[in-house]
C-alpha cells in the first residue's frame, strides 16, 4: 500500500534545544524516501522515528548553514555502513559543493553505496520519475538557497455512472485505462482528470518569487516560520519568514495543509505560531510541527 507522509525529525532553528532537534524531514512518497535538510543529530532522530538508511532514495539540502546540513556526515556514513542496495541521489546548491565534499568525507569510512551528486544552480525541474517531477526554486537568504517541490503527474478518475452507461465493467475497465479506447468509447468519456498531488519544502528565506512559485496549489507546504510577526524586522534582516508571512503565502497559494517549522529558541509557546497563522487568514489544515511527528498528506481531491 502506498504511503505519503512527512516524518518530522527536527524543528529547531540555528541551535537545538531540549525539546527540538536540528532540522530534518523525511518525505515518504509511495516507495521512496526523500530526506530534506539533515541537521546535526538526524541519524539518531531517524532511529527514534523508525526510519532506516534503506528508506532513503534522495537527499535534498536547501543551503549550507549548519542546522540544515551538519547531519550529512553521519547520514552518508550510515548509508554506507548499512550497505543500502540502491542508488541515492543528493541535491544541494552547486555553490556549496565544497561544503558537501567536506561533510561527505569528514572522516574515514568504507564507501559501499553509489551516491550520485546532482547539484542545483538554476530554477526548474531536477529529475523526473514515474511518480513525480522534482523541481527547485531559488530563495532569498544570505547564502545561496533553494526550495524543492514534488509534482505528481495528473491521472484519471473512472466515473462509475458513465462506465455503466456504456456497459463497461470488470476487466474491460482496466483495458480502457491501458488502451485509451474500448469499442469506440474514448477514455475521456468515462473518466475525469485526477489532479496529481503537490508537495513543497521551503526553508530559510525572505518573501520572494521562489516562495510563491513553490507553494502554488500545494497539497502540503512545509515552510519555515522562524519568527513571530512582532519580530518581522529581524526576519527580514536574517533572511527568514514569520508565522503570519508563511500563512499568507499558503492562503494566497491555495495550500491545503500548512506545516510550520524551524522555530527560534526565543519563543516558549508554540501555540502562538498557530494563532498568528490563523490571524493571517489561513483556513486550511494547519500543523505546528513537533519533533518525531508524522503528518499524512491530504487525500487526493
Number of helices: 10
* Helix content estimate: 25-40%
Major β-sheet, in short?
7 strands, mixed
The assigned structural class equals: alpha/beta
Task: Give the N-terminus to C-terminus distance in angstroms.
Answer: 19 Å
Shape: globular
Compute the gyration radius: what is it? Answer: 21 Å
Percent strand equals: 25-35%
**Uncertain runs with pLDDT below 50, 5 residues or more?**
none
Give me the strand/helix succession: EEEHEHHEHEEEEEHHEEEEHEHHEHEE
The strand order across the widest sheet is 6-5-4-3-2-1-18
Number of separate strands: 18
Mean pLDDT: 97
Could you give a short description of this structure?
The chain is α/β, with parallel strands linked by helices. It has helices at 42-49, 66-69, 72-81, 97-104, 160-165, 171-179, 209-215, 232-238, 243-253, 271-279; strands at 4-10, 24-29, 32-36, 58-60, 88-91, 115-117, 124-128, 133-138, 146-151, 155-158, 181-182, 185-186, 191-194, 198-202, 220-224, 257-261, 285-288, 294-296.
Amino acid at each position: 500500500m502506498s504511503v505519503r507522509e512527512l516524518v518530522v525529525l527536527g524543528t529547531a532553528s540555528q541551535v537545538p534545544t531540549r525539546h527540538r532537534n536540528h532540522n530534518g524531514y523525511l518525505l515518504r512518497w509511495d516507495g521512496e524516501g526523500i530526506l530534506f535538510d539533515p541537521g546535526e543529530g538526524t541519524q539518531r532522530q531517524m532511529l527514534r522515528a523508525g526510519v532506516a538508511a534503506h528508506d532513503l532514495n534522495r537527499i535534498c539540502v536547501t543551503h549550507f548553514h549548519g542546522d540544515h546540513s551538519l547531519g550529512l556526515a553521519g547520514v552518508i556514513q550510515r548509508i554506507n555502513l548499512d550497505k543500502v542496495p540502491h542508488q541515492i541521489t543528493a541535491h544541494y546548491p552547486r555553490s556549496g559543493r565544497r561544503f558537501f565534499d567536506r561533510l561527505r568525507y569528514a572522516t574515514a569510512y568504507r564507501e559501499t553505496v553509489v551516491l550520485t551528486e546532482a547539484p542545483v544552480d538554476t530554477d526548474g525541474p531536477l529529475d523526473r520519475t514515474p511518480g513525480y517531477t522534482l523541481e527547485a526554486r531559488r530563495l532569498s537568504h544570505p547564502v545561496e538557497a533553494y526550495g524543492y517541490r514534488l509534482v505528481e503527474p495528473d491521472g484519471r478518475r473512472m466515473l462509475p455512472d458513465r462506465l455503466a452507461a456504456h456497459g463497461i465493467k470488470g476487466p474491460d475497465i482496466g483495458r480502457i485505462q491501458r488502451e485509451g479506447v474500448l469499442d469506440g468509447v474514448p477514455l475521456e468519456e468515462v473518466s475525469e482528470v485526477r489532479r496529481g498531488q503537490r508537495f513543497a519544502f521551503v526553508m530559510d528565506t525572505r518573501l520572494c518569487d521562489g516562495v510563491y512559485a513553490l507553494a502554488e496549489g500545494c497539497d502540503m507546504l512545509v515552510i519555515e516560520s522562524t519568527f513571530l510577526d512582532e519580530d518581522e524586522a529581524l526576519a527580514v534582516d536574517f533572511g527568514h519568514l514569520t508565522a503570519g508571512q508563511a500563512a499568507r503565502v499558503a492562503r494566497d497559494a491555495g495550500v491545503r495543509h500548512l506545516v510550520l517549522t524551524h522555530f527560534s529558541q526565543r519563543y516558549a509557546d508554540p501555540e502562538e505560531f498557530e494563532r498568528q497563522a490563523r490571524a493571517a487568514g489561513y483556513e486550511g489544515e494547519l500543523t505546528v510541527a513537533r519533533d518525531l511527528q508524522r503528518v499524512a498528506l491530504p487525500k487526493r481531491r
